[in-house]
Amino acid sequence: MDTFKWQGKNRQGKKVKGETEALSESIVTLGLRKKGITDLKVKKKPKDIEINLPFFKAKVPEKDVVVFTRQFSTMINAGLPIIQCLEIQADQQENKEFKKVLTAIKNAVETGETLADALRKHPTAFDSLYCNMVEAGETGGALDIILGRLAFFMEKNMKLKKQVKGALVYPASVITVAIIVIAIMMIFVIPAFQKMFSSFGSDLPLLTQIIVNISAFLRDNVIYIIIALFISGYTLRKTYQKSDKAHHFFDNMFLKMPIFGMLLRKVAVAKFTRTLGTMISSGVPILTSLEIVARTAGNVVIEKAILATRESISQGKTIAEPLMESGIFPAMVVQMIAVGETTGALDQMLNKIADFYDDEVDAAVAAITSLIEPLLMVFLGGILGTMIVGMYLPIFMLGEVVH
To answer: I need a labelling partner for 293 at 20 to 30 A (CA). Which of 142, 160, 180, 309 fits?
Structure first.
């Protein structure tokens, strides 16, 4: 995809100029002539120097995709042609990477590709769920309705992610700050006390000696500890990504965690029911829907449970049975899904469950936050208090001896 600078005259005879991204100069010329631009001069713009670093790949923010989907739905509903909608969206897009993606999609649609096929070429912006729903909308002639459902689904999904991050960020940030403060005290503050204690000429109390020894160990080996932590974290991450057994072990452990396990299960139920309900109501076949939902589950244990459900349906069985056997989904959820299957209103039932569990996630996040805050205060207060007592204990003992 190249950028072309052009100038010419519009229908009123006024000079106009601009830039357009296209595959060739002829495509730019043809498009401008259709708009009534004459006396054209088109020139290829020199490419900017781009530095592509493997660790800093450009990514389209989910928020931009949501806004695009909502506006695209409104434009289609107003009767605007797809190509014109894409052109308007690309022109007003501030994110350069997303602008390139939308321009490429517009050009692909202009050459005769379906919108869904054009979207599939850009998986970093549009996942398989998005593309399959758009395909269903194109086939059924209800693209504007499907895009509206997609925008609603993505907004709910973003809210869910934000809630989970909110529950995790607070304790993580507090613990990180505490570790930094303790490390500074151990490496810089404790040695100053140690010099003062050495002038006392007597044995230190056990607690003080332990703290001094830990401080000396950290001070002498801080670089090695940091390197070891980095290597351990990197190795653990790679093992998690590449080993199926490790992946299953950790994902299963996360779901069984005392506090956060409950939250993750509720998030999983909300995401599963919302995604499946949206896809079924949009006309996507149920087997395709379950395969996509499994791939986007984000947890191997849940993914296997959903794939088992898909296998069950392909053999003519119900959805409810394998979901109940997995032990991940609550009995109430499974029973409601069974009722939805029986009455032929599965999509509506799934969306009701999703709405209910969105509220459950809200309540769980509030409960976890209120529970973790005092626990963190007690934990950090205990550590810092022990360090302070340990450092002042020799001074108190010295005072007693002098007295």
So the answer is: 142
DSSP code per residue over 30-43 = HHHHHTT-EEEEEE
Residue 46 has pLDDT above 70, yes or no: no
Select from 272, 228, 258 the least CA-distant residue to 368: 258
| Closest by Cα among 134, 126, 142, 148 to 284 | 134
pTM, entire model = 0.62
Vertex 294: Cα angle to 121 and 269 (nearest 5): 125
35-39, 47-51, 194-198, 293-297 — which is least confidently predicted? 47-51
Of the CA atoms within 13 Å of residue 385, those in its CB half-sphere come to 6
**C-alpha distances out from residue 159 to 29, 87, 165, 280, Å:** 44, 29, 10, 22
- Are domains 62-155 and 161-403 of this chain identical in fold? yes
pLDDT digits (tens, 9 = 90+) for 253-279: 888 887 778 888 888 888 888 888 888
Per-domain residue ranges of the chain: 2-44, 62-155, 161-403
What are the tokens at 282? Answer: 């949009």
**Residues 108, 117: Cα–Cα separation, whole Å:** 9
What is the CATH superfamily name and number for domain 62-155? Type II secretion system (T2SS), domain F (1.20.81.30)
In this structure, which topology does domain 161-403 adopt according to CATH? Receptor-associated Protein (1.20.81)
- Rounded Cα–Cα distance for residues 75 and 80 (Å): 6
